[in-house]
Specification:
Layout lengths: L1 E3 L4 H6 L9 E3 L2 E2 L9 H13 L3 H11 L4 H11 L8 E5 L20 E6 L2 H11 L4 E6 L14 E5 L8 H11 L5 E7 L1 H6 L5 H7 L6 H7 L5 E8 L4 E7 L1
Parallel strand pairs: 4-5, 4-7, 5-6, 7-8
Antiparallel strand pairs: 1-2, 2-3, 8-10, 9-10
């Protein structure tokens, strides 16, 4: 469903001037997607997650229980612990999916005090995120590409991304955009799967094999795509090397 909608005040305060007149909406989500980025790998994996969306959370929980022995939850907790959380911050989650990472925001944080914006290109995943977190978070969901965020410069206290950057059409542009919208001095996090998980996991599962066949992850390329002017850049590996995590400060 595509139509027009008013942009709520919280989102209006975040949007760059050139996007304020954009009233397009897709299934109830403000939609700022640029079609030039809905091609190639972005399109390929958008289709994959559209198919996976009804099973995403339950699949992770089953893998968590019977295969990883709770290592996935610990890994997500470790990722969230790398960020500098305080109450009443503005937060951008790039590739929000079903909002699974919000379960692992440190317990001492009043999550209702956070102003969270989640962006994704996959409407089906965002629909599940909205149902899951409705009434539990101050959450605004926006459909847009990571390579072209519709937000003002320096408007988020925390910016993080887990899962997807490996296959973004333009990794460097996406990382530049994440840095642009982060406030000066803030810490950012970008994380995704390593080749170990793709070869040893996804390539052995029927539904995902066709999407990840011949896929290769170059962590050095991700590190190189981080803008040069950032500081405190560090790369860490979690879950026995299956996940890499790059953190840095604007």
């Amino acid at each position: 469903m595509v139509g027009k909608t008013l942009i709520d005040k919280d989102l209006k305060d975040l949007l760059s001037k050139e996007y304020l007149s954009n009233r397009k909406t897709t299934v109830g989500f403000p939609d700022f997607t640029d079609k030039q980025y809905l091609t190639d790998d972005n399109r390929k994996y958008m289709k994959m997650y559209r198919w996976l969306s009804p099973f995403y959370d339950i699949t992770e929980k089953m893998v968590e229980r019977f295969w990883s022995h709770h290592r996935i939850a610990e890994m997500r907790r470790q990722l969230m612990d790398k960020l500098e959380w305080r109450n009443a911050l503005s937060v951008l989650c790039v590739s929000v999916g079903t909002g699974r990472d919000f379960d692992f925001i440190p317990k001492q944080i009043d999550i209702r005090s956070l102003q969270i914006c989640g962006i994704d290109i996959n409407v089906e995943m965002m629909k599940r995120c909205r149902r899951k977190w409705n009434g539990k978070l101050d959450l605004t969901l926006v459909r847009c590409c990571a390579e072209e965020l519709p937000f003002k410069d320096e408007c988020f206290d925390i910016v993080f991304h887990f899962g997807g950057v490996n296959f973004f059409n333009d990794k460097q542009k996406a990382l530049e955009e994440m840095v642009r919208v982060a406030k000066k001095g803030s810490k950012l996090l970008v994380a995704d799967e390593t080749d170990d998980l793709i070869r040893g996991g996804y390539n052995k599962i029927g539904f995902s094999r066709r999407y990840f066949k011949d896929a290769q992850v170059n962590v050095k390329a991700i590190e190189k795509a981080v803008p040069e002017h950032v500081t405190e850049k560090e790369t860490d590996y979690l879950w026995d090397g299956r996940i890499y995590c790059v953190t840095f400060r604007k």
